[in-house]
User: Fold these one by one.
Assistant:
Number 1:
Amino acid sequence: MRIFLFLCSALSLLLAAHKFSLAEPSGQYKGALFFLLMGIQMLVTGALIGEHRESQTPKSPPSAEKKDDKEAGLSAANASEEQGKRS
């Protein structure tokens, strides 16, 4: 849904740019402003939907790699503490 809104927004903004270039000599910007506002609205809506989905997805538990990294960090800290006690 978010990707569809971003694509529609890009298309709307491109149409607005084209309409602005055509309307420049005549001074009638109503159609161009309509497409510009629609493009901005779809862009904002897509961003809000993406942000809402990211906040609603549950966080995955730490993977085995992260656990191994934590264990390696703890063992390195323990080794440095032991060296400090020996000195």
Note: The CA atoms of residues 6 and 43 lie 6 Å apart.
Number 2:
Amino acid sequence: MKKTLLLLLTLLFTLSFTSCNPTKSSLNEMSKICEKIENNFDKYTEKEIKELTARFSELEKKLEAGELSENEKKELAKLKGRYYGSFTKGAIKATKKEIKKITDNIESTVEGFIEGIK
């Protein structure tokens, strides 16, 4: 019975310590933001993208201001790269869509431009 109680207390202590770790919590939130950008960039409004970016930057500054282990520093750097890479990829895809819209109507656009300058 004492052995079981000791094991249970050890488990509870470990869980409470890891769940209250603000660094890990911030890194997890940053990872979730990365997933949102990776999977749904084109579904977000400009305002929502700005909010996600602001939250990501806020978490980044908070972490960089604190004491991080080498592994945490590496994880933070990886998340930053992942976020900015995903953001760039999403922005490029959105730009390609807009360029496609323009090029699909380029002939009409040029005709209208020429009429406009006559």
Note: The chain has one domain: 26-117.
Number 3:
Amino acid sequence: MISKRATNRIQFFEQFLLYLNGLRDRLGYTLSELRTLLLSDEKMLSQMLKTMSGKLFDLGREGAAHEAISIIPSSYGLKSEDKKLIYGFLSELGSSDCDSQLAHCELYISLVNGLLSSQREEAAKKSRLYRLLGVFSGIGAGLFFL
């Protein structure tokens, strides 16, 4: 069993990866305005993307990205480097031509894939550790009562 924050972090990046793949597909077929591209059905991302979309014209891309990152709940378990990764993606989204945006999406898809695989490995290691600690605690308690 891994912690709820670690599980939420994995789920958040799985949803972010789904969003990135969908965005890449939409960019390949249509040229939509940035507000349209920021729509998502992913539960953990929707509030962040709505904030980005709402603040876009008032604060610009960088300011809106900063506001969007600041509303991510701490219960998602994101680290500061995770937030920097998301900020890097959001602040550059819509800043160049279609081909560059497709390359931008591909870059972040590969970065998020690497992050997800390392997070899953870490979760598996911690899960084994907790299981092993439980077994040794049980053995210790059994010896104590003998």
Note: The helical segments are 4-29, 34-37, 43-70, 80-92, 98-145.
